[in-house]
Amino acid sequence: MVNFCPLCPPGSLNCAANQGFSYRALMEFLRRLLLGSLMVAATTGLGVGVWALVTPREPRRREIAKELPETNPLRWAERRHQNELVMAAIKEAAETNENVARRPSPAWSK
Known about the structure:
Blueprint: H1 16-19, H2 23-54, H3 58-67, H4 73-95
């Protein structure tokens, strides 16, 4: 029986084709595969556990929502006024043929 291995020189006795099947190598591969999978699973589980501990619960979420700037009525009024100014500028730009982007900036924008 002639075995050919393209990686080994001809007549080499260390060639994998001459050694045959090794259960020890298979078991080592399966052991490493299992240990690697366990390490990935453990790391993922640890990450999910820490994430679950750090995530705020429902009462804390409600407190955070109350403190957001969007819930402040004064902030709503400021935002509404800003939107009105922007819409007025857009309306003015739509009604004229002049390139309003080339105009000098008004005093209020500085």
